[in-house]
UniProtKB/TrEMBL annotation, chain A:
Pfam families (UniProt xref): SBP_bac_1 (PF01547)
Predominant localisation class: periplasm
Keywords linked to the UniProt accession: Signal, Transport
Keyword Signal in annotation: yes
Location of this chain's protein in the cell: Periplasm
Signal sequence annotation: 1-24
One cellular component term from this protein's GO annotations in UniProt: periplasmic space
Protein name per Swiss-Prot or TrEMBL: Probable sugar-binding periplasmic protein
Protein family according to the UniProt entry: Belongs to the bacterial solute-binding protein 1 family.
UniProt function note: Part of a binding-protein-dependent transport system for a sugar.
Amino acid sequence: MSTFKKTTLALALAGAALASTAQANEVEVLHWWTSGGEARAANVLKDLMESEGYGWQDFAVAGGGGETAMTVLKSRAMSGNPPSAAQIKGPEIQEWGELGLLGDLNGVADAEGWDELLPEVVADIMRYDGQYVAVPVNVHRVNWLWANPEVLEAAGVEMPTTLDELFEAGEAIREAGFVPLAHGGQAWQDATVFESVLLGGQGSEFYQQALVDLDPEALGGEQMIDALEDFKRTRELMDEGMPGRDWNIATVMVIEGVAGFQLMGDWAKGEFTAAGLTAGEDYLCAAAPGTEDAFTFNIDSLAMFRVTDDEELEAQQALARLVLEPTFQEAFNLAKGSIPARPDLDMSEFDSCAQQSLADFQRTAEEGGLVPSMAHGMAVRADVQGAIFDVVTNYFNDADMPAEEAAERMVSAAEAASF
Amino acid sequence: MRDSLPMKNTSATPLGAGAKRSTPSGGLQAWLPRLVLAPSVAISLFFVYGFMLWTFVLSLTSSRMLPSYDFVGFGQYSRLMANERWWVASTNLMIFGVLFVVICLAIGSLLAILLDQKIRQEGALRTIYLYPMALSFIVTGVVWKWLLNPQLGIQAMVQSWGFESFRFDWITDPDMAIYTLVIAAVWQASGFVMALFLAGLRGIDDSIVKAAQLDGASLPRIYWRVVMPCLRPVVFSAVMILAHIAIKSFDLVVALTGGGPGYATDLPATFMYAHAFTRAQIGLGSASAMLMLGGVLAILIPYLYSELRSRKHG
């Protein structure tokens, strides 16, 4: 309880302290791109804005995967003084839209032809009530399998393309004396593995029904039980030192050749790059087993708040336009390890993993299989996501819970979370 | 629990009472203390009691991401009662709270009695036992996380000595993980309890002990039947302080287990934080905060009652 009060107090103070309004002709952008590469990437946008004669007021809030930033944003919004733009993603955009706080980007979108430029699934997330309210910054792919080629060689296995192959390869790696699958026992990492396994075993159509549409029959059905059982089997591939381990520590296990594989989104690439490794040679990337025809995306976006001042509005519209322009898309995504949100860019600067990612992005956008990531808040609202996390992580860690029971709980989680 | 402190400070104003008696002319002096205290009273009224009230109001609404005033009665409370994770958190608090308080008292009093035997280097030993209290729970949590990690800590060490079959992997076991919290918290707080008891022991009149010795009582018997009953107020304060620490525990869980494995080590405080701030369920979070407040009051009211009663008699 005291924590609650402390946070409320912090909220009130932050609201008061930060209540400096953006001047005309200037945008104030709240984001949490604060780590080295990300901060450089954000600076590109600032320079672009300034070269067009607009001001940029940086409002970076570090920490907690954006949790702190969202807390500050809420306090600003409550005090009636939101920034011009904020890093908000997925269904949360809809929640802010419902509150009537977001502005209208249809003008820019029409002029720039966003409807043609963006895949339909992505454009849907950026729209509230038929009008554009946000602009996508980048696309992360979540269903990746990372591997250390030396470990694979020592165990005499290839990159697996199906779940069965993954389990077989895992056995061989274990016998060769390595940890088959590096993992950190945190709820979101459990959920990341779960959604990749579910996608690999049951396909993107089922994924869409169960984890995006929350269809109770899919959530409680046979396929879900199969998916949960596959998921539990991956636990046998993990080491017992995993509780509470951070994802990047797990990545380091792959880098150092302690572990063979890791199932993680493409932000893991940042760790490989930082260690001076080259994609395709020193480390391998492939779609998570069984998911080469699917793409779970995690898209960062900037949502625009409603502004009244004409000059600020102009600057805000310019910001929206610049975010999708090739210059920024390329510079930002090279720094962040993700791929551009518009599929028509020249990708020669990017590494082989990113190129494959973009090719798959385009292909799945056309042929189907492009689905939002549940584990990363793109598919369902925060409360439902949290309830599903509870079921997934509890089932994964409880040796005695049968998959049938977990599936039942999954159904009630989807129901009970919404009020 | 923190709320009670400003209250106590303001209610006990011996300064003001003294000033009035000693200087009859000092109208200002009589008012000065109240004037000086007024801002802090006003601030604590607003920020503590005002927000408490606001939390209660929010717990009756359907607030999600931002506070709203769409009242749904006690709907959030019934949702909370139907939430399995809340029950896990509450049960965990019971297990953690009881074990933490009892073990801390046992170890603390034992250490105090041993230190009280007029041994050499008592000061140094006392400092060593008291030092964990100087660490924040975050540090304790991280250190114990490493110690308890089966591949880094105690298990790995003992296995490397040749005891291959040795297992100590409670932190990975959902049924046992809650006890790792107890271990870390006891390590941190029992030195403090020892200091409390030691202070109490030093306050006991030597002649009572001597009288008991003359009557032929053995040392354990003296401690159990004579000294401990004298220390009742110390036990009482220790229990109160430890109970508060237990209910407030948040940082320890975050650092040590992150609520895991699964949510096996969730406590009401981490439950509340997760729901109010990361899961956009401010209404449900507020309801759980109110229930926690109820739990705190259930401990605090008997404490205040007995405090006030003993003051009246004294």
